[in-house]
Amino acid sequence: MKKLNTVTAIAALFVVMTVGTLALGIAFQTPPHDHAHDHNAHAQHDHTDHENGDLQGAFSSQTQEYTCSMHPHFRSSDPNERCPICGMELIPVAAGGSDDEFVRIEFSGRSLALLGLQTEPVRRGSAYHEIRLTGQIDFDERALTSISAWTGGRIERLYVNYTGAQVDKNTPLVELYSPDLFVAQQELLQAHRQANQDAPAFLRDSQAMTLRAAKERLRLLGLSPEQIAQIIERGEARDRITIRAPSSGLVVTRNVSQGDYVNTGDVLLQLADSRQLWALFEVFERDLAYIRVGQTLEFALGTAQERLTGEVVSIAPRIDPERRTRTVRVAIEDTQSALVAGSFTRATAKIEEADVLTIPKSAALITGKRAVVYVQTEPQGGEFEARTVELGRRLGDRYEVFSGVEADELIVSRGAFRIDSELQLRGRPSMMAPEGGGPTGHEHHGHGSHDDDAYDHSAHDQNAHIQPSAVAEQIEFDAQLHLEPLFRAYHHMWEALHSDDLSAWQSAAEDFYTEVDAVHWPASFADVQGLLEQGMGHAHHVARIATARDHFFDHSQGMIALAQAGFHHGDLHLMFCPMARRGQGAHWLQQDDTLLNPYFGAQMLRCGDHEGLLSGDGGQHE
């Protein structure tokens, strides 16, 4: 009886510490039974024991197990034992049904209201893939006009003598002195006089041919038919010719000055149509599959709210060996925008993918190659079914789905992790442990979505579900910043702290601060820079490793923001320890998935959770 009372007291503690079955009124699907039976005689119906408060019958029928609310994979039959990972007191494991209950879980109406779940149908149709692009604005090469010297000579007068001048069609540009031009005009006048003289029939054909040849020579020297006609009408040869603009445009290049001598074919000026522009975007190899010539792209430039459209004119034939990108030329159709050629720009292009099956990103609980979603079996019902799905591409805020769900099925888009957490605490099969018994390690849903901040699950601190770095939203990827040395120094600090080596941290921190100081940070990175500079200049004065870990927390916030913007090479693992910083929780980055806690070191080296992967672009620029 004394043992039974102890078990009952622990069960009461379980009621206080968790939002499990007692608090939320959750009932797993089991075969129907008669509520009029004797509870003590049928203790295997554990869900009715919870509903009727008959804990004695539920726990006396089998050996009671205890678990850690922070690490549900740990199991013990000793209620007085503590978690070997974090040292917390253990709580009872709620009894469950048979293994075939994995796929379904049922909530009462009140439980659903408390959980705050949101559902939406699986969608088949168009989805949009967003690609972040960097590049610059330039003139459309198809609208460039070169003004060349059709004959050698001297620039007698330069009507347009500065770059940036706007000229209209037929505007005088250059007056050229040319002896060859003077001789050709004399030959034209002489041929014209002979053609108009009375002559035998056999000579008239020869004279007409000579006149045509003289006109053709002048045409090849750059004179228009109108100018040739004016010479004949004037009857006088001149040694100067005025070169006029063949079309309207902006003078973008001036290669000569007044008085210069030029040779035949030299480019004097170059005109461009300022209303016809290209956006030259650098596209990484992984995104080239989404781009094709003739495709229409919709994109926004920089921080501008106005969206532009343009047609992909060409894709560079080769990948840049250093940047690992190909240049994509997009002809901008909106000619009214205040765009300036040569300006650097960032853009987000939306690529439409037609007829794909998609789910919200927040619906998928991902661990490794597995992904689980929860399907609401009936509209407005309280029963949910776990499904393993095969995910494809990330399309904006959605995932492409190859198998596991059908179009129009209702899935949990917000709060799926709360359902899965309940399964873990009850020792039932879940996302992390398909065979039951709690999660298989320190990994949570790999997509890193923390929409469950309102859910106070057991002894988990509320801050376990905050976004790792709020400043990440303030920055954008900048191809001009090369931060790989900074990431290397950060990883060395992490290695020193999880090894409890203060002197190694001091050395690594000095290197880290040196790299921070070497970067030319844009103004928009001020908050990140402030986090990275915490403790700068004082690493050698730090005498307590606890102080070093406080600095590392600030540094991690900045580095996570940079990683979320894609400044690193390859994949980094985002880790979280809910016990760090006196229970407030803290994130950090690792290069591999073997969790080593830098905030506790040997004291709780394995305490924490894997919260996902951050894939980087920065390495592509190195």
TrEMBL record:
* Keyword terms, alphabetized: Transport
Which Gene3D superfamilies is this protein grouped with? 2.40.30.170, 2.40.420.20
UniProt region (Disordered), positions on chain:
33-56, 428-454
**Which residue ranges does the record assign to the CusB-like barrel-sandwich hybrid domain?**
146-271
Q: Cellular component per GO?
A: membrane; outer membrane-bounded periplasmic space
Domain CusB-like beta-barrel, first and last residues per copy = 276-349
The segment(s) forming the Heavy metal binding domain are 66-93
Enumerate the InterPro entries for this protein: Beta-barrel_RND_2, BSH_CusB, CzcB_C, HMBD, MFP_Cation_Efflux, RND_pump_MFP
Q: Does the keyword Protease apply?
A: no
Superkingdom per UniProt: Bacteria
Q: Where is the composition biased (Basic and acidic residues)?
A: 33-53, 441-454
**GO MF terms on file?**
transition metal ion binding; transmembrane transporter activity
Q: Which positions fall inside the CzcB-like C-terminal circularly permuted SH3-like domain?
A: 358-418
**GO biological process terms held by the UniProt record:** copper ion export; plasma membrane copper ion transport
User: Which SUPFAM superfamilies does the annotation name?
Assistant: HlyD-like secretion proteins
Record family assignment: Belongs to the membrane fusion protein (MFP) (TC 8.A.1) family.
The name this protein carries in UniProt is Efflux RND transporter periplasmic adaptor subunit
Lineage summary: Bacteria, Pseudomonadati, Pseudomonadota, Gammaproteobacteria, Alteromonadales
